Amino acid sequence: MARGDDDFQRARRPEQKRQREAAILEAARRLALRDGVRNISLADIAADVGMHKTALLRYFGTREEIYLHIATEAWQEWAKSLSAALGELSLGDVPGIAKAFATSLDMRPLLCDLFTHAPLNLERNVSLTAVITFKLSAITAVKILTDAVRELLPTLTEDDGNELLVGITTLAAGLWQLGHPPPHVAKLYVEHPAMSHTAIEFVSAITRLTETLALGLLAKRAR
User: Fold this and answer.
1) Residue 39: its pLDDT value, please?
2) Is the same domain home to 114 and 166?
3) Domain boundary among 60, 79, 102
4) Residue limits of the HTH tetR-type domain (predicted)?
5) CB-based burial of residue 183 (10 Å sphere; 0-12 exposed, 13-18 middle, 19+ buried)?
6) Is residue 47 domain-shared with residue 72, that is, in the same domain?
7) Which residues contact 26 (CB under 8 A, 6 or more apart)?
8) Same-domain check for residues 209 and 175
9) Residues 107 and 217 in one domain
10) How many Å apart are CA 69 and CA 23, to the nearest integer?
């Protein structure tokens, strides 16, 4: 149940501020998972939490700042989880690596959506400090994942690992959108299959293309 502005105004202690921030972030996540990042406004988030937009601005200056914060956390969680899954694979298991990436991304629709919107708009209406925090977090997450991949594919260089991660996340950003069209477009594809040339199945596409990228990088090192 939404709380009123008075409930938020009475809080004064640091832990209460942290609770407010957590409530704002949780509302933003929930709304984005339901409607997509692009469709959520600051007013939507404030209304879901049960506070006035001007009160929310005491915690986050823009919707972009909220979602960049969420993206920072999502990158960290993904790197931790996926690196653990990769650690269970055998040396040289390219198909296993590809499947692990695809499965982990399919479980994180909000992260895939954020891959799209971070460079398009989330980095454009925030402070430089917020951008730096996000970039450092993403760099750390990429390093964790490239190290995990290179444990399994030791002939790859660090640059190769970075290229692989850039390729996978870029593919995930675009393919997630293609694989999850809005309802009216999905209905169009069903009624007119000839128009569904861009419709893809996300997991199989990411698996196949990740394997292709990894094999290409390995072939380059074998020359």
Assistant:
1) 94
2) yes
3) 60
4) 18-78
5) exposed
6) no
7) none
8) yes
9) yes
10) 13
Domain that holds residue 164: 63-222
* CA–CA gap between residue 187 and residue 118 (Å, rounded): 28
Same domain, 35 and 77: no
B/e letters for 45-60, b = 16+ CB within 10 Å, e = fewer, are bbbbbbbeeeebeebb
φ/ψ of residue 48, rounded to 5: -65, -35
**Sign, CA torsion 140/201/118/39:** negative
Same domain flag for 87 and 50: no
| Residues 54 and 68 reside in one and the same domain | no
Q: What's the pLDDT score for residue 2?
A: 45
Closest residue by Cα to residue 202 from 82, 104, 111, 102: 102
pLDDT at 15: 84
For residue 1, what pLDDT is reported? 39
Contact, 91 vs 152, CB < 8 A? yes
What is the count of structural domains for the chain?
2
The verdict on 196 and 98 lying in the same domain is yes
